[in-house]
Structures
1.
Amino acid sequence: MNESQRILKAIGPDAMQALCREFGGTQIYVPKKVPQPERDECIVLSFSHALKDGSTCMNAYERCAEDTGLSVRRVQQIVAGR
């Protein structure tokens, strides 16, 4: 089974048609996990609140990481991306 067939099987014909219309003929990156914008927004808000409450940057990252079960590095990436 080639990649196109695997994608079709995974997402179905309607989504495959939309994907082809939008990105046909181009290379796209498919992340390993589904983006979670709501979670990321909560992390950014929590980080901002921690800073306003007087935490250092590193303490704010560590607190967010502990609260979400993510690594400090992942929290830093999320905050940097916003």
Note: The CA atoms of residues 40 and 81 lie 9 Å apart.
2.
Amino acid sequence: MNRKLAMNLISDETARIQEIEDKYNSFHEASAVIREEYEELWDEIKMKHHDVGKIQFEAVHLAAVTLRLLIELW
């Protein structure tokens, strides 16, 4: 995957999340969401037989929720 595609996927996922979820109320809430998404990515990485598609999905989702922190709380 190249950088442009990755950034487009992250941007699209961020927009999708912002449409269906309420804004973060605090840095603590954002941190909890980011931590949860990180754990989901880590669980996929730890699998004996890697599903690259699932890892990519979780990585994009983690980046998207982190981007929300930058957009919504600054």
Note: The first helix runs from residue 3 to 20.
3.
Amino acid sequence: MIPADTQRPTILIVDDTPDNLALMSALLRDTCRTKVATGGKKALAIAAGEPQPDLILLDIMMPGMDGYEVCRRLKADPRTAGIPVIFLTARTDVEDEQRGFDVGGVDYIAKPVSPPIVSARVRTHLALKQAQDFLRDRNDFLEAEVRRRMREVSAVQDATILAMASLAETRDEETGNTSGPPRNTFANSRWRHARIRASPPISPKHASSCSTSPPRSMTSAKSGFPIGSCASPAGSTPRSSKS
């Protein structure tokens, strides 16, 4: 049986004030697993590790690396770019909020925090993250399935073409192909080449034979006999040549 704790979402809380970490952890511990970090470098290391957090609550004003820089680095890393970031801050100026959205944040929670607002914002963005993960996994599955089906179809087509060509060749060999060209494209091509190879050449003796008369249009205007005909007019005798 899988422990229930492993089925709950994981949230990374980043704040340089221990009291804020304790408060946020207490608010979320009944519904989420929580991890904490007191600085930007540690937060980046935890976010890139396994298991990765499903959501990050990130304080903006921290010494060394502030929340904006932490978020920028998270979004620049392909391993952590898909993790939603909610900023925790006492600064609610429009410019500050705009900067947070520009670096990749998805929402703001103003300090001092309100437990109902924290719970509602966290539930909303966890649901969105779950839906995005589902769609991404589904899309990956469908793409893999399409590639598999295409490979299967290609293999069937190749096998069918080879089988038809082999069958046509076998029929040519067995029947001598005397009944006309087969319908298969490959076999039909083989049939045409076979017919050309099988046609006997016209020998000189056959070409000089007088058994075939030229067309009627090819007749002498004087004698009325076909040009080149070996036959003589009825009752006439060939003239002997003078020496």
Note: The two ends are 125 Å apart (CA to CA).
